[in-house]
């Protein structure tokens, strides 16, 4: 079943209520052609399980690993992904756009 | 995000009420603004603007940069008629993210065997529709071809703020429908909100193809600004005088 925003935020609540460490990643800005619109969300638990998407699958892996750090530290982070940014990030967007993703812990 | 805030947000979403989450990007501090309380918010104008467009986004405020996550209810599709087209339309619409409900008083049509996994109400529109809370996030299609069922349903939909109302039937069928709705007291502008013949003109023949044309038209209505829709939708026809 395809995950909808509803399912994603409900999963965030349910996973946290079940005692898991949970982070929420949200696309907050996009430039150029971005695969998912601003507001798209990805929820991640402490074991790296995730639901939703912030891109067409290009950067989810990197967001998940950053999210695990955020779950551990509790400090929100702003991530940026883009083709031009390949020195800073090993992953990029093949579509040529740039996205900024806000990652926060659900506390 | 604090868990209680997330729970409050999910409560609003489950109740189909719009809300905006305001996040201070520098500090991570957040608050939830419910649509009903938006006018009293310090960022009232900004929040109202985002609620109107339904789009999330970053904004500069006197207190710093904030991100507004806009949560409007998921679109809903109410289908009048448990007909062949509906059997294709319902699963496709679910895939597109719509909450689908089918209404048809004819129990031979409205059977769970024909519509597995779709909420089905085997009642007349006057009984079935009021509890559904049809709203501006609802697309409404009438597909029975039977005026006894379609007409009262369309009257119900047009009295509300549905973002899309469509009705199956040829131009001739629709012309007769326009006459009946006019006789029922609707003005021409209200009747002109009905998309009929329903669906984009893509040469659809089979029920699944017609379902595609209907969902394409609904998607255009949901996503495209008015000026861009002119390129995909036929010009509205003059209501019969």
Automatic annotation (TrEMBL), chain A:
Coiled-coil region(s): none
Domain (XdhC- CoxI): residue spans on this chain: 15-82
InterPro entries per record: MoCofactor_Util/Proc (IPR052698), XdhC_CoxI (IPR003777)
Superkingdom, natural source: Bacteria
A Pfam family reported for this protein in Swiss-Prot or TrEMBL: XdhC_CoxI
PANTHER family for the chain: ALDEHYDE OXIDOREDUCTASE MOLYBDENUM COFACTOR ASSEMBLY PROTEIN (PTHR30388), MOLYBDENUM COFACTOR INSERTION CHAPERONE PAOD (PTHR30388:SF4)
Protein name: Xanthine dehydrogenase subunit A
Higher taxonomy: Bacteria, Pseudomonadati, Pseudomonadota, Alphaproteobacteria, Hyphomicrobiales
Gene field: pucA_1
From TrEMBL, chain B:
Domain of life (superkingdom): Bacteria
Name used for this protein in its record: XdhC family protein
InterPro entries linked to this entry: MoCofactor_Util/Proc, XdhC_Rossmann_dom
One Pfam family from the record: XdhC_C
Domain annotation XdhC Rossmann: ranges: 77-218
């Amino acid at each position: 079943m395809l995950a909808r925003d509803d399912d994603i935020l409900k999963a965030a609540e349910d996973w946290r209520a079940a005692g898991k460490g949970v982070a929420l990643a949200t696309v907050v800005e996009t430039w150029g052609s971005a695969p998912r619109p601003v507001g798209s969300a990805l929820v991640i638990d402490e074991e790296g399980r995730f639901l939703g998407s912030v891109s067409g699958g290009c950067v989810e892996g990197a967001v998940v690993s950053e999210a695990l750090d955020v779950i551990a530290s509790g400090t929100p982070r702003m991530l940026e992904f883009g083709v031009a940014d390949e020195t800073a990030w090993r992953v990029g967007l093949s579509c040529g756009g740039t996205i900024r993703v806000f990652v926060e812990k659900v506390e | 995000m604090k868990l209680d805030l997330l729970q409050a947000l999910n409560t609003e979403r489950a109740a189909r009420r719009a809300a905006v989450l305001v996040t201070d990007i520098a500090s991570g501090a957040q608050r939830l603004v419910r649509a009903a309380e938006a006018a009293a918010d310090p960022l009232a104008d900004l929040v109202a603007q985002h609620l109107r467009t339904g789009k999330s986004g970053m904004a500069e405020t006197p207190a710093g940069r904030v991100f507004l996550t806009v949560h409007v209810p998921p679109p809903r599709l109410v289908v009048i008629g448990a007909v062949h087209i509906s059997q294709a339309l319902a699963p496709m619409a679910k895939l597109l993210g719509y909450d689908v409900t089918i209404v048809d008083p004819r129990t031979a049509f409205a059977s769970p065997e024909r519509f597995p996994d779709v909420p089905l109400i085997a009642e007349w529109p006057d009984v079935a529709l009021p509890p559904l809370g049809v709203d501006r996030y609802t697309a409404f299609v009438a597909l029975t071809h039977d005026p006894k069922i379609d007409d009262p349903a369309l009257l119900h939909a047009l009295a509300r703020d549905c973002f899309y109302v469509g009705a199956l039937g040829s131009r001739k069928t629709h012309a007769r429908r326009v006459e009946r709705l006019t006789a029922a007291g609707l003005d021409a502008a209200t009747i002109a909100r009905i998309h009929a013949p329903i669906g984009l003109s893509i040469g659809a023949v089979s029920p699944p193809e017609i379902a595609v044309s209907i969902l394409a038209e609904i998607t255009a209505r949901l996503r495209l600004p008015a000026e861009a829709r002119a390129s995909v939708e036929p010009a509205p026809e003059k209501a019969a005088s």
